[in-house]
Amino acid sequence: MFQVRIHGRGGQGAVTAAELLSVAAFMEDRHAQAFPSFGSERTGAPVVAFCRIDDRPIRVREPVMQPDALIIQDPTLLHQVNVFDGLRPDGAVLINSPRSAAELGLTEFTGRALTVPATALAVRHFGRPVPNAVLLGGLAALTGCVTIESLTTAVCERFPGDLGQANAAAAREAYDHVRKAEREERAHAQAD
Question: Whole-angstrom Cα distance, residue 181 to residue 115?
Fold first, then answer.
């Protein structure tokens, strides 16, 4: 079972991101579940959403305590909430930021951590600072949990018309951004 925990703030689309990811998995004939965990339900308050994907029916219903991957939609949460709690040792982390993981103070983090300027991509593609679908494109590249095709189809179904197409284009750009960053990391590692 592949488990994702999404940390964000109210209004950034964390709950919608979990739902989109589960729909993309359904499109691949897999089982999935998505659900949120709210504290204070207001714009800007910390929000956590979860998604599980498996080839078999999913019976567990509690929050994801040991994620295989994390999406952090707001980098200010890195120092306010223990976002890494329970992350599997080989887990992947995707952070919404134009800065590198090292610049964000994650130099001692031993897992795979990449950043994507998701808010900037969202604003450029569809004029709103909502990074959710954009980050899912990056997650698809980083983990292979769903294909970019399934993801963009799910996005376009959820948001018909121009908004869906723009979100899908932003997700594809994030996908390409992560793929390029991974290639650069491998080249750098081979050079050392």
Answer: 9
* 117 phi and psi angles, rounded to 5 deg: -75, 65
**Distance (Å, rounded) from C-alpha 55 to C-alpha 172?**
25
In DSSP terms, which residues pair with 189 in a beta bridge?
Answer: none
Inter-residue contact 129 to 73 (CB < 8 Å): no
Structural domains in the chain, sorted by start: 2-191 (3.40.920.10)
pLDDT in tens, 133-175: 999 999 999 999 999 999 999 999 999 999 999 999 999 999 9
Long-range pairs, 150-154, Cβ under 8 A, ≥24: 150/24, 150/25, 150/27, 150/28, 151/20, 151/21, 151/24, 153/24, 153/27, 154/20, 154/21, 154/23, 154/24, 154/27
d(CA 86, CA 68): 9
35: helix, coil or strand? strand
Which pTM does this prediction carry? Answer: 0.93
Return d(Cα 45, Cα 183) in angstroms, integer.
35
